[in-house]
Amino acid sequence: MRRQLSLNTSVCAASLWTICALVLLSVTTGVIAGETRVAVASNFTVAANAIGALFERETGHLPIFSFGATGQLYTQVTQGAPYDVFLAADKTRPARAVEEGYAVAGTRFTYANGRLALFSRKASRVNGKSTLTGAENVRIAIANPVIAPYGAAAISVLRSLGVYEKLQSRLVRGTNIAQAYQFAFTGNAALGFVALSQVVGRKDGSHWVVPAYLHPTIAQDAVLLRHGAHNAAAHAFIAFLKDAKVRRVIEKFGYGSEE
Fold this sequence. Notes:
- This protein has helices at about 1-30, 45-60, 70-80, 90-100, 130-135, 150-160, 165, 175-185, 195-200, 230-240, 245-250, and strands at about 35-40, 60-70, 85, 110-115, 115-120, 140-145, 170-175, 190-195, 205-210, 220-225.
- By secondary structure, the protein is of the alpha/beta class.
- The protein has two domains: about 35-115 and about 220-250, Periplasmic binding protein-like II (D-Maltodextrin-Binding Protein, domain 2, 3-Layer(aba) Sandwich), CATH 3.40.190; about 115-210, Periplasmic binding protein-like II (D-Maltodextrin-Binding Protein, domain 2, 3-Layer(aba) Sandwich).
- The strands form two sheets. It has a five-stranded mixed sheet, sandwiched between helices. A five-stranded mixed sheet has the order 7-6-8-5-9.
- The longest helix is centred in the first third of the chain and has 28 residues, at about 1-30.
- It is globular, with a radius of gyration of 23 Å.
- The model is unreliable at about 1-30 (pLDDT under 50).
């Protein structure tokens, strides 16, 4: 019994020393891991996950992502959702968040310029803009243009090409760009206006990268929300998005650089 007590005391002492050493290391290096909740536009899902893994590896902070249509996410912010950072698919909502007191002034910036693509799961289906002129009898998926900037951009493309009146009855609206892609990928719609980031690098199916002049620039802004104003991890994530290596990751997933 006495030997067992002595052993336990030694183990406890060693454990205590280890804990103290780790705490001391954290204090002296200034690295104390935290977490941050980030509201992210659906089009940026794959890129955000890649950036999040890199961010966690390099800083120790854990980003917790919530994906959705920009309009829906903004409504959640105004209703008190505990997000620290907002990565929108437009400039309008982050600017409004600052104006209405939901975000920190001076923290808004463009983290990516989105690109739109017309996609089909069939390899020979999409052949540039001419694909749309013969699409009267097929369903075309888009994100809801009221709450999703990529959906609004899709409507602009159809109007620019003069085919909106002809095709509007064939449009299938997804809640966000992720659902629009799902409609096209599963074949529930023959065509889909999706984010280029969703199809870049794919070997199957076919897609056409929509020329930027056919729709307004999809400038995607990030902003630090009031809820994250005193969160070191949130500040670190905002700063991380501006790092050169992260810019390269963003471009790899089909986004343009800030103009």
